[in-house]
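Query protein
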Amino acid sequence: MEDFKDILTTLFKPKLKAIGFRTSGNSFYRTEDNFTLKFDIWKSQWNTSIDMTFWFDIGVFRPDYYEFMFHKGLPNYIRTNHCSLRLGSGSVLRKGVPQYSYRLTPQNKRELTEEIENDLDNSVVPFLTRIKNIEDVLEFKDLDPVYCSDTNLFVGFVLAQTGNIDRAQKLIVEYLSFARYPTNWVDRILAECDRLKLKIKK
């Protein structure tokens, strides 16, 4: 659909490129010191040539955490569905739902273009601009405490590897206190804490 390509080319690509993102098709990424920030646009499988639904999500990826979480090798091409922390468009835009979709038809291109430009300028770009170091990633949990409930664990493990032991221990203890997790998952976390020389009590 040419109208979608126009929106991708004139809105998403230049605005994300301006804040350091590189692109491949509908997928964008920016590499920081301790993680990669991902921004992907997804299209519905039910789209037609004149009626298209699409949405975006934002993720944080780190290879060692992916292997810890999923116990398998790295994918050849990283997208947001491989990210341990993942925010839906609705959370970023504060729409009251985790995922918010755009619907594009020949009749609404102008209005939708204005909506997307407003969303990018007022919500998406400011959010992505703020995520520069590992502590900034904690904002994921603020925007979606359910789907990003592992944020403290992710940030804690990264901080442990960069030498910030006290802060790492505090975040991981907060994570373990947040809910009653399966015993095997807690055991895996504690084993990783031992490897990282963190003092976390069961």
In short: The chain is about 45% helix and 15% strand. The helical segments are 2-17, 63-70, 89-92, 109-130, 139-143, 151-161, 165-178, 183-195. The longest strand covers residues 52-61. Residues 109-130 form the longest helix (22 residues).
